[in-house]
Amino acid sequence: MQNELKQIADAEVSGGGTIFLVRPLTDAAREWIEENVSNESQWFGQSLAVEHRYVGDLITGMQADGLTVI
User: Fold this and answer.
1) Residue 69 DSSP code
2) pTM, to two decimals
């Protein structure tokens, strides 16, 4: 079931506490991040590291632009 969700999702959010990881799974999600997130952002492997106070707005923005986030 989880692999099926990843196939239809554009991005996956994991972690918690003070830092969340947002991993783009599609080209659309990668492009969205390039266009909407500061060039000074921090990456942890293939995932964007996002402070807890910003992750909600990031997810809302991605969803508002038609991306699916799990």
Assistant:
1) B
2) 0.89
Q: Give the structural domain span for 32.
A: 2-64
pLDDT band at 7 (very low <50, low <70, confident <90, very high): confident
Assigned domain for 36 exists: yes
pLDDT in tens, 50-62: 999 999 999 999 9
pLDDT digits (tens, 9 = 90+) for 33-50: 999 999 999 999 999 999
Q: What is the count of structural domains for the chain?
A: 1
Instruction: Give residues with Cβ within 8 angstroms of 11, minimum separation 6.
Output: 22, 23, 24, 25, 26, 29, 62, 67, 68, 69, 70
Q: Please identify which residue in the block is written with the tokens 């947002």.
A: 22
CA separation for the pair 9, 48 (Å, rounded): 16
Q: Is 70 inside any structural domain? A: no
Residue 38 lies in a domain: yes
